[in-house]
């Protein structure tokens, strides 16, 4: 027989935990109801396990210690309540897998040589004089030895202004991502690591892309390219908005709302989604990434969009106004 899943909890119990999560978060629970909740929680190990997942969910999603005094979940009206409970119960069922993913991401960030948290930027000057700016949710390692100057981009986006090597032997300056390696040829450039794809934009000088077993391509100033582990993209002009993030802005020029929201989501914790009905709405303008709530308010004032928040602003949905 297959081994029993030690993380499995009866879906009915998870639904009960989701219901209690919503009731307690309203902040209007009386003493009788609180005692009822305690009896429910302590009635069986399965109930305690389900509630532990509820606490873990709020702790991880909202960055708060588990407690009964939870932020408001914006309890939906009665017709929506069953659907909302179902979504919460699904999240509770996925808690063990999600926790493993969170632990991996946290470990990658905390063990990196340098990092910038979500919603923040960081400026660095390396030992050779090279200047590096880290965008939101970025982590890098730096390896300088007698043969090379290597920067490993674990995740995120960086802007690099290389400096002449002060050592007697001119060591190449290289940047490596999960997909491949780049070598700077006296230059200023940006690199963004995405899921299975690296973006490169060269502002000054040139950068050579090297893929093992594939070949290389030189990208000159004013050009951009990208690559996977198996192929290098063609050359394109550098988008004028590529460095807007260094000024704390997100630039859009006739951008699909769905794509805009995907970019904005990088600068805030939580989940940010838009209804498919407005996914193709075109957005133009300059928006602050240091205050994503302000940007969402700007969208709601300018376009036929309604912004709805749940789970204490962790879960935000854009729908037609």
Automatic annotation (TrEMBL):
Coiled coil: none annotated. Residues 113-207 form the FecR protein domain. Residues 16-56 form the FecR N-terminal domain. InterPro entries: FecR, FecR_N, Ferrdict_sens_TM. Signal peptide: none annotated. It comes from the Bacteria. One of its GO terms (molecular function) is sigma factor antagonist activity. This is FecR family protein. It comes from Pseudomonas bijieensis.
């Amino acid at each position: 027989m297959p081994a029993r899943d030690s993380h499995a909890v009866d879906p009915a119990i998870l639904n009960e935990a989701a219901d209690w999560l919503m009731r307690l978060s309203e902040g209007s629970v009386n003493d009788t109801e609180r005692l009822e909740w305690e009896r429910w929680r302590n009635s069986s190990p399965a109930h305690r396990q389900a509630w532990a997942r509820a606490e873990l969910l709020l702790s991880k999603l909202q960055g708060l210690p588990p407690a009964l005094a939870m932020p408001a979940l914006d309890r939906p009206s009665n017709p929506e309540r069953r659907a909302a409970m179902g979504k919460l119960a699904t999240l509770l069922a996925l808690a063990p897998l999600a926790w493993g993913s969170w632990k991996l991401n946290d470990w990658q960030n905390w063990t990196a040589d340098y990092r910038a948290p979500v919603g923040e930027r960081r400026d660095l000057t390396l030992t050779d004089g090279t200047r590096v700016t880290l965008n939101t949710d970025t982590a890098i390692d730096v390896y300088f030895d007698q043969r090379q100057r290597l920067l490993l981009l674990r995740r995120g986006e960086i802007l690099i202004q290389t400096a002449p090597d002060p050592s007697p032997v001119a060591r190449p300056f290289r940047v490596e991502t999960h997909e491949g390696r780049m070598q700077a040829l006296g230059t200023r450039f940006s690199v963004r690591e995405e899921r299975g794809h690296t973006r490169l934009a060269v502002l000054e000088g040139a950068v050579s892309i090297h893929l093992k077993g594939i070949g290389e391509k030189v990208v000159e100033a004013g050009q951009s390219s990208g690559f996977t582990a198996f192929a290098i993209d063609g050359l394109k002009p550098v988008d004028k908005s590529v460095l807007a993030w260094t000024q704390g802005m997100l630039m859009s020029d006739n951008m699909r709302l769905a794509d805009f929201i995907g970019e904005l989501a990088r600068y805030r914790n939580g989940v940010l989604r838009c209804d498919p009905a407005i996914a193709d709405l075109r957005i133009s303008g300059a928006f602050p990434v240091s205050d994503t709530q302000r940007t969402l308010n700007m969208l709601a004032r300018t376009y036929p969009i309604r912004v709805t928040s749940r789970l204490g602003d962790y879960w935000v949905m854009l729908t037609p106004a």
